[in-house]
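User: I'm writing a tutorial on reading structure tokens. Could you give me a worked example: one chain, its sequence, then its tokens, then a sentence or two explaining what the tokens reveal?
Assistant: Sure. Here is the example chain.
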Amino acid sequence: MAEQPPQTFANHVRRDPAFHFFLAPLAIVLFGAAIAHAVRHPSSETVWMALMGLTVLCAVFLIRIYSLKVQNRVIRLEERLRLKELLPAPLVPRIGELTGGQLIALRFASDAEVPALVSNALDQKMAPPDIKKAITNWRPDYSRV
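And here are its predicted structure tokens:
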């Protein structure tokens, strides 16, 4: 298997070719074409086809959203467990103060950086993108859906 390039803030966003370049565009085009056809040739059949196009469009996006929600839940759990092992005793009780987005952003931080980043994230109420930008030793996540 080809070696992955090092992951950084600049390149960590992942595009899923099957979703971003095939399913989503095709579902949008299908819905648009069905609407256009229903407008040009109104009938119960063309309206029904437009509704089916909307159904396909919604299904495609819900499939993506649900998989990301499940993955985010798993990441938050993994990070809470990781933080319990890595943080000094005074910070452990504050893990619950971290937002879901902060926990998800912290997954990219190396073990050595985590205590300082968590402290800063809590004290400064850092937004997830700011946490990611503050990471100097990036811990890659190539498994993101």
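What the tokens reveal: The mean pLDDT is 93. Residues 15-75 form one domain.
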